[in-house]
UniProtKB/TrEMBL annotation, chain A:
It comes from Rhododendron griersonianum. GO terms for biological process: jasmonic acid mediated signaling pathway; protein ubiquitination; ubiquitin-dependent protein catabolic process. Residues 11-70 form the SKP1 component POZ domain. Belongs to the SKP1 family. Pathway: Protein modification; protein ubiquitination. Residues 109-156 form the SKP1 component dimerisation domain. This is SKP1-like protein. The keyword GTP-binding does not apply. Pfam families: Skp1 (PF01466), Skp1_POZ (PF03931). Involved in ubiquitination and subsequent proteasomal degradation of target proteins. Together with CUL1, RBX1 and a F-box protein, it forms a SCF E3 ubiquitin ligase complex. The functional specificity of this complex depends on the type of F-box protein. In the SCF complex, it serves as an adapter that links the F-box protein to CUL1. Part of a SCF (SKP1-cullin-F-box) protein ligase complex. It comes from the Eukaryota. Keywords: Ubl conjugation pathway.
TrEMBL record, chain B:
PROSITE patterns: FBOX. Residues 45-101 form the F-box domain. The lineage of its organism: Eukaryota, Viridiplantae, Streptophyta, Embryophyta, Tracheophyta. It comes from the Eukaryota. InterPro entries: F-box-like_dom_sf (IPR036047), F-box_AtFBL13-like (IPR053781), F-box_dom (IPR001810), FBD (IPR006566), FBL13/AtMIF1-like (IPR050232), LRR_At1g61320_AtMIF1 (IPR055357), LRR_dom_sf (IPR032675). This is F-box domain-containing protein. Pfam families: F-box (PF00646), LRR_At1g61320_AtMIF1 (PF23622).
């Protein structure tokens, strides 16, 4: 973010749900539209900003993502792309969901995109029984209802068990 | 009709989640920060079903239409979540990966398309593709078009078999949200008197028959920001002369094969596109395409089919080549060059391609006429790269009498590639000529079957070379 260069030294403090405080450079925080909107309004950056639903582990990941993207110049898109694909690699589902919720709440579009894409990739091309298992979705259809939903949407189920 | 019902018992609840979240998204004081209900993301819990609506929507947007609709069966909560998807791609084409276990009747597919519109929530439909070979009623298609326009459709692709001559809804032709329109329609295109595609950037018409000069001209004049135009196997029989003048056009594709049309040069289409960058023209000379003012052209691909037909297309070939004279990269077929074999004083009639650095000779290059090629090379003084994409063998009967050495051989030609290389007479003869005379050549890439490469390499390296630094590379054939 070129516009934030003059404020490069300013820092603000974010507080996770489990009470840990993170000192963040302003230009890194600006990756989040939520924080940007707050800083654009009258809020003083001297305050501690509580993020009551984001735990320290998730917040650390989020800020790592933001720092990489804030510091990289636009010419290094290739480097950012490989950072993004490494970033979510081997991440367990729990951490991934925490991340997607945090990205959604803090409005970090790039992070929301890659996390949602990663979840979508897990669903893609898999039979629904497998998807239910992976995400612990409880099937509350009766067998008759399930058969009816499947029949109504038969086109989408072509080739699936 | 096999559907359980057409009316949903409840409308999908996606919007609610989004609204809840939006309330908390733009807080103006730090005290406002709150998430919706606590998400327990521990092991064994169904987290995905409890994500905020907009996040689920976002995840679904990364899925194919099929995968998104299949989520309906996960649980009752998911039954209608897919109805907010903004990119809808529906086709009844046979799936090669999964052979059908049951016979999927066409009627069910069209009903299903109807059902998708019926259930879709209020949100935007950004793109819609319907691809079906089932005969369909015009009124049904028009209801889909109208519905998609109510959802601010941006990209519409219809590849359908209308049962009878369709009359598309008038308001389609003045639709402001439309950015891309692709129609695959084996019927005449009836256009209304009012057309204004104010935001249309891409227009692709396949198998469409144009009705007459006026309406066709009117259509192409009513796309003030069009950047890409593709006319694929269109019927031109009702058109005598039209002018396509689109200053914003960047890419033009014309494919026009003889089996789809009748008559030879029965229609004149004049094309003015000062900002055109990419041109692809595969034509059987049913339409006499005349190119004007293509001063920005970067690459062109020209393939005129069947040079052996009784009619003489030579003036058209010379015209097309003159039209693309500013091009940097030209790809041309052997059939096209064949039209020129009998031209007298070809050297005087062919323009000089002052900008051309890259020349590709493609498709079955069986009838290479060295005479024509040499004139083309002579007229390409800045040529750096020459590629025989499909190799060649010579049918020329003039016994390989080449004239003088093209000037690019001694000034600019750095790389030559020949596919399907073997040591037949024509290739070896051309190779000797090239190696001896191309004094600035740096690389000669020969793609060949991997028989005795070492032996071949030794033999080739013994040939006299005009360029001491030229490297001969033997490479395996590329599989396309």
């Amino acid at each position: 973010m070129a516009s934030s260069i003059e404020n490069n030294n300013e820092k603000l403090t974010l507080k996770s749900s489990d009470g840990e405080e993170f000192l963040v450079e302003k230009h890194v925080a600006l990756q989040s539209t939520l924080l940007q909107n707050m800083l654009d309004s009258d809020c003083s950056s001297a305050d501690v900003i509580p993020l009551p639903k984001i735990d320290a582990r998730t917040l650390a990941l989020v800020l790592g993502y933001c720092k990489k993207h804030a510091d990289a110049s636009s010419s290094k898109q290739g480097e950012l792309n490989s950072f993004d694909s490494e970033f979510l690699k081997d991440m367990d589902m729990g951490a991934l969901f925490n991340l997607v919720l945090a990205a959604n709440f803090m409005e970090i579009k790039g992070l929301l995109d890659i996390a949602a894409q990663k979840i979508a990739d897990t669903i893609k091309d898999k039979p629904h029984q497998e998807v239910r298992e992976i995400f612990h979705v409880e099937n509350d259809y009766t067998p008759e209802e399930e058969a009816a939903v499947r029949e109504e949407n038969r086109w989408a189920f072509e080739g699936f068990p | 009709m096999t559907f359980r019902s057409l009316i949903p018992l409840f409308r999908p609840q996606m919007g609610q989640g989004k609204r809840q979240r939006d309330d908390s998204v733009h807080p103006h004081s730090f005290a406002n920060i709150e998430l919706s209900d606590e998400q327990d993301v521990g092991d064994g819990n169904d987290i995905i079903s409890n994500l905020p609506g907009n996040v689920i929507h976002h995840i679904l947007s990364f899925l194919s239409t099929k995968d998104a609709i299949r989520t309906s069966i996960l649980s009752t909560k998911w039954e209608y979540l897919w109805t907010s998807i903004s990119d809808i791609d529906l086709n009844d084409n046979l799936n090669d990966t999964f052979p059908r276990t049951t016979k999927w009747e066409y009627r069910n597919f069209l009903d299903f398309v109807d059902r998708v519109f019926h259930f879709h929530d209020e949100s935007v439909i950004k793109s819609l593709t319907i691809d079906s070979s089932e005969p369909v009623n015009s009124s049904l298609v028009n209801s889909w078009i109208s519905a998609s326009m109510r959802h601010n459709i941006q990209e519409l692709t219809l590849s359908l078999c209308w049962k009878a001559q369709p009359v598309l809804p008038c308001h389609l032709f003045t639709c402001q949200s439309l950015v891309t329109l692709k129609l695959f329609m084996n019927w005449s295109l009836k256009v209304p008197s009012q057309i204004h595609f104010s935001n249309l950037k891409t227009l692709e018409l396949s198998y469409v028959t144009f009705s007459d000069d006026n309406s066709t001209q009117h259509l192409f004049s009513s796309c003030p920001v069009l950047q890409e135009l593709a006319l694929v196997h269109c019927g031109w029989k009702n058109v005598k002369t039209i002018m396509i003048c689109i200053p914003t056009l960047k890419r033009l594709t014309i494919e026009d094969e003889a089996i789809w049309a009748r008559g030879f040069l029965s229609c004149v289409t004049k094309i003015y596109a000062a900002n055109l960058i990419h041109l692809r023209c595969i034509s059987s000379l049913v339409v006499d395409f005349r190119l004007y003012d293509l001063s920005s052209l970067v690459d062109a691909s020209i393939g005129l089919c069947d040079g052996s037909s009784a009619e003489d297309g030579t003036p058209q070939v010379l015209g097309l080549l003159s039209g693309v004279v500013n091009v940097k990269k030209l790809s041309i077929t052997s059939d096209t060059l064949q039209y020129l074999t009998l031209v007298e004083n070809l050297s005087d009639r062919l323009p000089t391609f002052y900008n051309m650095a890259h020349l590709e000779l493609n498709l079955d290059f069986y009838g290479l006429s060295f005479g024509v090629l040499m004139v083309l090379l002579e007229k390409s003084p800045k040529l750096e790269f020459l590629n025989f994409e499909q190799g060649f063998y010579d049918r020329d009967e003039d016994g390989y009498t080449l004239g003088r050495v093209p000037s690019c051989f001694t000034s600019s030609l750095k790389t030559v590639g020949i596919a399907y290389f073997d040591e037949d007479d024509a290739k070896m003869w051309f190779l000797r000529f090239l190696l001896k005379n191309a004094t600035v050549l740096e690389r000669l890439m020969l793609r060949c079957y991997t028989r005795d490469q070492q032996k071949l390499s030794r033999r080739l390296n013994k040939l006299p070379k005009g360029s001491k630094s030229c490297v001969i590379e033997l490479l395996p054939l590329l599989r396309s």
